[in-house]
Design brief:
- The chain has two domains: 139 residues; 327 residues, Neurolysin, domain 3 (Orthogonal Bundle), CATH 1.10.1370.
- By secondary structure, it is an all-alpha fold.
- 43% of the residues are buried.
- The model has no long low-confidence stretch (mean pLDDT 96).
- Broad specificity carboxypetidase that releases amino acids sequentially from the C-terminus, including neutral, aromatic, polar and basic residues.
- GO terms for molecular function: metal ion binding; metallocarboxypeptidase activity.
- This is Metal-dependent carboxypeptidase.
Length: 488
């Protein structure tokens, strides 16, 4: 037990320092002055150097050999520490530190290039990020380079397995999308100005409706909405357009899904490897089920219609037309604003391109052309500016290669969870119509969230749903929903 306790004490400090690194990243995107970018990069690199040294401390190997787990949770903790140690010791300290420094710098360069529609200003930095990520993949890989990076976000998954799932989904999604776009049912966008302050008030109301604990969180603005931290400090951000309130509302609900997952994890797991979400796919299941299956449902949009009318005045449409508008299917450029049918197709595009970047099949210099050609093929429209194309997402600038497919996996998992949850809790829609997602949150907390990383990703979903994850419930949900809205 001494070895186990010593290992946990070491891990606790490492986890706490990791949380501090997360706060530095949050500050960089939300509060930090622009002129501090170079200084912050050095700070982040220094902290990463300390973290890498702790994660590769030779004592960990000794402790792991001697430690005895008193219970299944402890056994899982030992397994995850061992996995982390194995990966960390394969990466040279120089590489870990340089990755932290360049991705910190790259984030600001990306944001400025995006704002200025200047792809050329970002490409040299992205080339350096890709070079370093390829080197990292080579250190970690036992076969497929992309799989080595994917394992950081969805442990146990492989690119081949994900590609097979995507191949099964693509045909039905495109066919349903084509039927919807051929329907005579149309929705006109709201033609009003929605003041920023009023939008933020409504965003806070929506966050509260989904159970966000404001004593342990906060809402701020950023270029790209995100959720950060966990436990007693789970923060979210959003962004606002005064002509499109839905971007703010549904970004907020999406990030609340992430944050309430973290807030619900058993406090006994705090500062251990199981004290946070088990994978990004499972994490996305929480954000997507809140945003879509709950937040875009007819009962909730009926409540939202009333709240928006109270806040902004007459919207010029009834609740049914408003529900159709919230769920309008169109060939838009922006992933985060995409409808549920096109969203997964956005992810498939990014998945294929980033696999090719890591394996060397695609070079950064050719990325914009490859993106634009693939986008026109998949969505039938031409990209005319970089912010609508490959510069729209922050992920590649900060080295998150392997992250994108977890968004679509999250949708698959959310489909399974939604099916099981509604079978178990029939009053969900009645409460959503009152602006209360409490029964849904309670089911998710009890069956999934409180366990944190106790089980591997697929087992986490299977435990909650009683069946192995499959894309079938998601496709059935989408078919029923959009056939009803578009009267197909």
């Amino acid at each position: 037990m001494t070895a186990y306790q010593d290992l946990l004490a070491h891990q606790r400090e490492t986890e706490a320092l990791g949380n501090i690194a997360g706060l530095l990243s949050w500050d960089q995107e939300v509060m930090m002055p622009r002129g501090a970018a170079d200084q912050r990069a050095e700070e982040v690199a220094a902290l990463e150097s300390v973290l890498h040294a702790r994660r590769t401390d030779p004592r960990i190997e000794v402790w792991l050999a001697r430690a005895e787990a008193p219970d299944p949770a402890s056994a899982r903790i030992l397994d995850l520490i061992g996995r982390s140690y194995n990966r960390a010791t394969r990466i040279p300290a120089r590489l870990a530190t340089e990755l932290a420094r360049i991705t910190s710098l790259s984030q600001g360069i990306w944001a400025e290039a995006r704002a200025n529609e200047d792809a050329s200003a970002f490409l040299p930095t992205l080339e350096e990020v890709v070079r370093l990520k390829r080197e990292e993949a080579e250190c970690l890989s036992e076969g497929d380079l992309y799989d080595a990076l994917l394992d950081d976000y969805e442990p146990g998954a492989t690119a081949k397995e994900i590609a097979t799932v995507f191949d099964r989904m693509r045909g039905p999604l495109v066919a349903l999308r084509d039927r919807v776009l051929g329907s005579e049912v149309t929705s006109q966008p709201l033609s009003m100005v929605f003041p920023e302050n009023a939008q933020m008030r409504l965003a806070r109301i929506c966050a509260s409706a989904f159970g966000y604990d404001w004593t342990r969180g906060r809402l701020d603005m950023s270029v790209h909405p995100f959720s950060s931290g966990g436990g007693d400090d789970a923060r979210i951000t959003t962004r606002i357009s005064e002509t499109d309130p839905f971007g703010n509302i549904y970004s907020t609900i999406h990030e609340v899904g992430h944050a309430t997952y973290e807030q619900a994890i058993d406090p006994a797991y705090r500062f251990t490897p199981i004290g946070h979400g088990v994978s990004m796919g499972v994490h996305e299941s929480q954000s997507r089920i809140c945003e879509n299956q709950l937040g875009r449902s007819a009962p909730f949009t009926g409540w939202l219609h009333t709240r928006m009318t109270d806040t902004f005045g007459d919207l010029g449409m009834d609740p049914e037309a408003f529900h159709a508008l919230v769920n309008r299917v169109e060939m838009g450029f922006i992933r985060t604003e995409s409808d549920e049918l096109n969203y997964n197709l956005h992810i498939m595009l990014r998945f294929d391109l980033e696999r090719d970047l890591i394996t060397g099949k695609l070079e950064v210099a050719d990325l914009e052309e490859a993106w634009n050609a693939r986008f026109e093929k998949d969505f039938g429209v031409k990209v005319t500016k970089p912010s609508d194309g490959f510069l729209q997402d922050v992920h590649w600038s900060v080295g998150l290669f392997g992250y994108f497919p977890t968004y679509a996996l999250g949708n698959v998992y959310a489909g399974c969870l939604n099916q099981a949850m509604r079978a178990a809790v029939p009053e969900i829609d009645d409460r959503l119509a009152q602006g209360d997602a409490g029964p849904a949150k309670a089911w998710l907390d009890e069956n999934l969230r409180r366990f944190g990383g106790l089980r591997p990703p697929r087992e986490t979903i299977e435990h909650a749903c009683g069946a192995a994850p499959s894309e079938a419930p998601l496709l059935a949900y989408l078919t029923e929903k959009f056939e009803t809205i578009y009267k197909l």
